Amino acid sequence: MMYRSEIRGRGGITAKVVEATASPKGKRITTLELKYPRFIHSELMTHRQFSRNASSSRAIPIENMMDQVERRHAEPIEWGKNQKGMQASTTLDGVQSGKAGRIWCMASCDALAAVDGLNELKVHKQLVNRLLEPFQFISVIVTATQWENFFNLRSHKDAQPEIKELADCMALAMRAPEYKEGSHHLPYLSSDERKYDYTEAASISAARCARVSYLTHDKKEPCELDDLILADRLLSSGHMSPFEHQATAMSVKHLIATSGKGYTHIKKDLSLWSGNFKGWVQFRQEL
Fold first, then answer.
1. CA 209 to CA 243: how far, in whole Å?
2. What pLDDT score was predicted for residue 120?
3. Which three-class secondary structure state does DSSP give residue 253?
4. Pairing of strands 180-181, 14-22
5. Buried b (16+ CB within 10 A) or exposed e, 66-89
6. FRET label pair with 268: which of 22, 117, 118, 221, CA 20 to 30 Å apart?
């Protein structure tokens, strides 16, 4: 998979632009693939204008999760000194930071030992992997049309350093690509695969977005038939979030042709929305 841009930050944090599309009216939609410490995942999840899919502790084999943590465990990029309030205005000195890092590393080793013991007892991964979550990196796909609130809050001195680092990487990644003009936004599809009709192409894209849950979307050789089968299984079982990353540009012509299917609401400024997308009709809403 060729990415349009990739930014590597501190502490193993990365942001890649997978797809960047501008509608004929200039409305932008962007899909990013992110990697960051799982302990800040809740910070990203508070932003409801984001569509997202993430790697799952319930789906990834215990041995794979252990290997990931053993190779590089997630840890803070700054060791803030405790004080009142939510922000640390000062950091520990070099000696104290070194001690803090060693203690964190010892905690990850203890967690690995506990996981190994539970794995020998054949305890299911949906339970065992939870012990490693503070030390995991999580892979997340995010698609949105509105980013201002996120960057205002997270690219800010008061944000936790790790989420600020992530937001800064995302902002840099989004500045790099040229937004290609088009009427369809289809992450993870090659130019050859866009020959399919929109429903099929969007279903293939959705299946590849879903695979982030078990980390194979960028490792498995693409197969359109397998993707369509997976998309059908997701749809029939009601797993709809992977269908939120694909979209069609809003237009009067499209609105009339579809009789408004997928258009969900109008805001006070008279802007048309489709779920959490502005200016684009989300595939999930059409389904």
1. 8
2. 97
3. helix
4. parallel
5. bebbeeebbbbbebbeeeeeeeee
6. 22
Alpha helix (H) ranges present in the chain? 41-45, 62-71, 94-120, 125-128, 148-154, 161-175, 198-210, 224-237, 252-257, 283-286
Q: Please answer whether residues 213 and 246 qualify as being in contact, where contact means their C-beta atoms are separated by less than 8 angstroms.
A: no
Q: Which residue has the tokens 């964190």?
A: 104
DSSP state of 11: G
Question: Residue 21's beta-bridge partner residues?
Answer: 29, 180
CA–CA dist 216, 144 (Å, integer): 23
Per the CB < 8 A criterion, the answer to whether 17 and 3 are in contact is: yes
| Lookup: tokens for 206 | 């959705």
Q: Around Cβ 110, how many Cβ atoms within 10 Å?
A: 11
Domain range annotation of the chain: 5-57+137-286, 62-135
Q: What value does the mean pLDDT take over residues 153-178? A: 93
For the record, the structure tokens of 187 come out as 């992450």
> Is-contact 187 31, C-beta < 8 A?
yes
Quick one: average pLDDT of 114-127? Answer: 97
* Total-model pTM: 0.93
Q: Are 27 and 280 in contact (CB under 8 A)?
A: yes
Residue 2: pLDDT band with limits 50, 70, 90: very low
Give CA–CA dist 56/215, Å, rounded.
Answer: 9
Contact in structure between 276 and 48 (CB atoms under 8 Å): yes
